Amino acid sequence: MAGPHAAEGTSAEGNGVKPVLTPTAYALPVRVNVADAASCRAMVAAALERYGRVDIMVNSTGIVRDARIVKMTEDEFDSVIDVNLKGVYNCTAPWRSI
To answer: Which of 12, 48, 60, 87 pairs as cysteine with 29 (C-beta 3.0–4.6 A)?
Structure first.
């Protein structure tokens, strides 16, 4: 899953995430566009399909555009809001029905 706000190098090998952290704890590295609700729903579905349940979700995506708001373009501002705020909602919302 990828998109304009997807993180770079998010493969298991590229970011250092190991699929098995301990004998009883697992991580599922997935490329997700957090600004896109459908991409986040697909991430949740992939995790549930693989493991049947999820005990912890770490939502740590964020971006910065090095500009004061008066110098920031609207597109830059929108991308920061889409990732840093809407992304939290998009990653969390699919879990409400579980």
So the answer is: 12
